Amino acid sequence: MKVYLEVYGCTANKSDATIIKGCIHHDTPFTFTDSLDLADLVILVTCTVIGTTEQRMIHRLRIFKKLGKKVVVTGCMASVQVEKIQAILPHAIIVPPNNVHMIVSAIDSSLKQIEYLEKPHAPKFFDSLIAPISISEGCRYNCTYCITHLARGKLQSYPENMLLQDVRTAIQQGCKEIQLTAQDTASYGQDSKSSLPQLLSRLCSLQGQYRYRIGMMNPRSLKDHIRDIIKIYSYEQVYRFIHLPVQSGDDEILQLMQRGYTSEEYRRCLSQIRKNIADISLATDIIVGFPSETEEQFQHSIDLLTSIKPDIVNITRYSARPQTKAKAMKDRIPTDIVKDRSKRLTTLIQHISLARNQAYIGQEVRVLTIEKGKNSTIVGRTKNYKPVVLKEEMDLGIFTEVTIVDAKETYLVGTLK
User: Fold this and answer.
1) Could you report the per-residue pLDDT of 137-154, keeping only the tens digit for each?
2) Topology agreement, domain 2-107 and domain 364-416
């Protein structure tokens, strides 16, 4: 049987995909194909974080139905929107994210299931220089707009020993960038006798030339453990990069979102981080048009971003998700106003990002060449995770010294020294 795998969404979904590949590669008669037409079975790893993404998933399901393919659906829709899947494909095999390690027996119950009981123990298969590895499942919090915590459940931190083995395997398979992911990496270990700093102290003891990219942290968790988490960035193997979503610059909106911190607490956290790690890159998220958001409240988000000057901002137009508290909130913002606010934020961020990147022109930096770019270019990452586009021919997976000669809004341009 030939299997076609299609993956959407966050790094956690990409991590689940490595489990799917690992389970299927491990003693099954299945083989993977890059051709949808040649496939006997389609596995779709879904995302439903916003309405437009959900509609894309529905579109893909309808295409698979027309092709008459046998379909397995996993990812967040397989946990919280089963009825929508079944309305299109009544006979689809549905595997929720927490059962993705059981995918082989779900496809064919006659096949001998690999002998493990829990998801963290499942085999993984890494087929690129980048290894996405989930360090936990679920979340401690209950943000009113978020469907992901409903799909993934409560926090379950994976055992340190298992993660150590996963990373060791990834490095042995040639991976150079290890993306440690979770709904909130700063919460790791809060349900067990561990912590993110304790985990990293063990992971960074592994031999080899590689880098860790630490995934999204909730400011609510970070502010309680900030001193210890700052120490993580002293490890040579850790990118000086932090994804710290603020979601809004207005305290009333943050309270409606149930984020558990104020805009001032966010600023203080960021100030402390930058005081200790001067060159750290910051990515943050903003939701535009949350129910009842006034123009004045939106201006507070503009003021915050103008003040903190992040390197990357992921702007999301509010999308009501099923089963969430925010869906029942009144005072929905008209679409034209949301679009206008999103456009204004985008323009602001473009100016901020370009100015921050232009400061690198003329600097000599060390990059890890990690992937192929457009037009036969190579993309490397600096120590603080800035993407550098290189036009010279060179191998992937190596560290090399480059000079930054130009800067764009989303990347730097370099040349070999």
Assistant:
1) 999 999 999 999 899 999
2) no
Cut 0.90: pTM above it? yes
Helix/strand/coil (H/E/C) assignment for every residue in the chain: CEEEEEECCCHHHHHHHHHHHHHHHCCCCCEECCCCCCCCEEEEEECCCCHHHHHHHHHHHHHHHHHCCEEEEEECHHHHCHHHHHHHCCCCEECCHHHHHHHHHHHCCCCCCCCCCCHHHCCCCCCCCEEEEECEECECCCCCCCCHHHHHCECEECCHHHHHHHHHHHHHCCCCEEEEECCCHHHCCCCCCCCHHHHHHHHCCCCCCCEEEECCCCHHHHCCCHHHHHHHCCCCCECCEEECCCECCCHHHHHHHCCCCCHHHHHHHHHHHHHHCCCCEEEEEEEECCCCCCHHHHHHHHHHHHHHCCCEEEEEECCCCCCCHHHHCCCCCCHHHHHHHHHHHHHHHHHHHHHHHHCCCCCEEEEEEEEECHHHCEEEECCCCCEEEECCCCCCCCEEEEEEEEECCCCEEEEEC
Which one of 3.40.50.620, 3.30.70.890, 3.40.50.12160, 3.90.380.10 gives the CATH number of domain 2-107?
Answer: 3.40.50.12160
The yes/no answer on whether domain 126-239 falls in CATH 3.40.50.720 is no
- Specify the CATH superfamily of domain 364-416: Nucleic acid-binding proteins (2.40.50.140)
